[in-house]
């Protein structure tokens, strides 16, 4: 049975359609990614999942419970790490966890035990008595994540968990999330960091303008939609363009840069570098970012 | 706008109350200062400085000193201020800047319970302030007992009313600076013209009629009647006014906050 089932979900804000018929499901123990540029509708979807935002149409089932009938039970069993920090600035680090446990009717002794355990897991035990104001962005995120786990959720929902963090904090969070996943936690994650999705997600959807563009396993999707490797050429001249025109390959022309998508082998790269020019040519594996840009376009958003 | 259904509300509202209370407890020594000092300052300024010029005045057939006259009003004003400022500035900060409501909405609590919990807490602050002030004023010998004990449930009722009124403002303002409007057009005029510092009879007829619509007028009437043992049938009318208004405003405040937050 799917942990989460979303069917034909819709949300309009006036004339703007934020979510335009989205369907997907998340299986037990998997990490499922919602990818999309800013404004694609990711946060709106997340907010509809825990009843923060009412939906206009569609069905939502979590743990097999209909969200309209079992919202309280659902919220008791999920952990949500919202995009914006909503830690309680009036409380210490530890009291943020212990206090939050009260809303789940967890007895105080048990709440203190879990709080200490989570502080240890996220390497926050030395900051237990600090006020929220003195924490760095990375520490706040770790505490947000710890707080989302205080009710021992069966499904963890993360809305852009690493946006705005430095590489150290991001790596640490990824490690912790991977560990949680290994212990069998089901995770739903939104992000626009491809590295994050590649590292954590078993399956994902790419969303834009409130619709799903593609769904699948990250590596398979890249292989299928982009290819095996990408040849990047800086400052191409006419000779180079002519050379590529003769070869039968997929070229994306960005003006000052060419991207050539290759399905297999490096013959073309070897031929190009030996016969035309080697300078500014680079062969690299195709990645999720290539797929993402291909599907959602290169123009700036917002 | 959707009116709250009583079935939506559970004891979880008290968790929100508990959150605010535990933070209040951290600073209780500071929070206790205003209700303890304020009545002393007023009694000193008005009771000693002004009372000699005013002399005695008649209220409900009884002769009262000026200090006696204003003492219950001071408690009433504190009930109004404590609740109103809690659900305006403080609730707005929690809602808008601290995202406290967002965090709570990710737990089994619903918005209706959160808003009710906030209002119950604001009313509790009124009760704490009223109780402390009653102690101080009684020690100075201005209140009669046992009637003054009724100020405590009265503070709960009045506190809940002004908490709901404040929450309605919070649901309607665009930004925090807009609270100046209800304060200077509503709260300050009420503070001055609700029979607080002079009997309503001193006002022209039309203003007396107008004052009968102000909720603080009725809170002051009740507080004065109870604490000075000036009983009259008028008190029942004032009680009815506050009860009905509170029963209307509390669900209205919840409905308006839901309209504001849920999009």
Tell me about this structure.
- The complex is a heterodimer of chains A (302) and B (263).
- Chain A is an alpha/beta fold and 302 residues long.
- Chain A has two domains: 4-217, P-loop containing nucleotide triphosphate hydrolases (Rossmann fold); 227-286, 2-Layer Sandwich (Alpha-Beta Plaits).
- Helix content of chain A is 37%, strand content 27%.
- In chain A, the strands form three sheets. Chain A has a six-stranded mixed β-sheet with strand order 6-7-8-3-9-10, with helices on both faces. A four-stranded antiparallel β-sheet of chain A has the order 2-1-4-5, covered by helices on one side. Chain A has a four-stranded antiparallel β-sheet with strand order 12-13-11-14, with no helix packed on it.
- Chain A starts with a strand and ends in a 6-residue tail after the last helix.
- With 263 residues, chain B is mainly alpha-helical.
- Helix content of chain B is 73%, strand content 3%.
- In chain B, a hairpin with a 2-residue loop joins strand 1 (56-59) and strand 2 (62-65).
- Chain B has a two-stranded antiparallel ribbon.
- Chain B has one domain.
- Chain B is built from eleven helices and two strands; from the N terminus they run H-H-H-E-E-H-H-H-H-H-H-H-H.
- The longest helix of chain B has 32 residues, at 66-97.
- At the A-B interface, helix 2 and helix 3 of A face helix 1 and helix 5 of B.
Properties at a glance:
heterodimer, A: 302 residues, alpha/beta, Rossmann fold, Alpha-Beta Plaits, 2 domains, six-stranded mixed sheet, four-stranded antiparallel sheet, 11 helices, 27% strand, B: 263 residues, mainly alpha, two-stranded antiparallel sheet, 73% helix, globular
Helix fraction bin of chain A: 25-40%
The averaged pLDDT of chain A comes out at 92
Distance between the termini of chain B: 12 Å
Strand order of the largest sheet of chain A: 6-7-8-3-9-10
What oligomeric arrangement do these chains adopt? Answer: heterodimer
Number of helices of chain A: 11
Secondary structure class of chain A reads: alpha/beta
Please give the share of residues in helix of chain B.
Answer: over 70%
Instruction: Work out the count of structural domains of chain A.
Output: 2
Residue runs with pLDDT of under 50 for 5 or more positions of chain A: none
The CATH fourth-level homologous superfamily of the largest domain in chain A: P-loop containing nucleotide triphosphate hydrolases
CATH topology of the largest domain in chain A: Rossmann fold
Please state roughly what percent of the residues of chain B sit in beta strands, choosing from under 5%, 5-15%, 15-25%, 25-35%, 35-45% or over 45%. Answer: under 5%
Structural class of chain B: mainly alpha
The run of helices and strands of chain A is: EEEHEEHEHHHEHEHEEHEHEEHEH
CATH architecture of the largest domain in chain A: 3-Layer(aba) Sandwich
Main beta-sheet annotation of chain B = 2 strands, antiparallel
> How many distinct folded domains of chain B?
1
How widely separated are the two ends of chain A? 38 Å
Q: Low-confidence stretches of chain B at least 5 residues in length (pLDDT < 50)? A: none
